[in-house]
Amino acid sequence: VQLVESGGGMVQPGGSLRLSCAASGFTFSSYDMNWVRQAPGKGPEWVSSISTGGSMSDYANSAKGRFTVSRDNAKNTLYLQMNNLKPEDTALYYCVRGGWYWGEGTLVTVSQ
Fold this sequence. Notes:
By secondary structure, the protein is mainly β. Helix content is 0%, strand content 52%. It has no helices and eleven strands. The strands form two sheets. Strands 2, 4, 5, 6, 9, 10 and 11 form a seven-stranded mixed beta sheet that branches. Strands 1-3-8-7 form a four-stranded antiparallel beta sheet, with no helix packed on it. The N and C termini lie far apart (37 Å).
């Protein structure tokens, strides 16, 4: 199982980023997928989940209305569109399968 996140960076408050997670080594379309983040000095925080086919998704309260999770099973890729970013969104964002398999993370920094 390999999960490789990309798309992080530095953005000003109110800006947007689109994270991607390229999955390999397993049948991507057979698994629900998750985004989890970890802010500096804090524990992991679940952000969003999406069902195998993408028809169902769920969000932490902190992400509702601003983030959108999606997937392209033909490309074995998971996405997280993040809009209206806030400084408190600053964190390492991880793509996670089942709680066991994590990518290396991509850093999102929201700052002036």
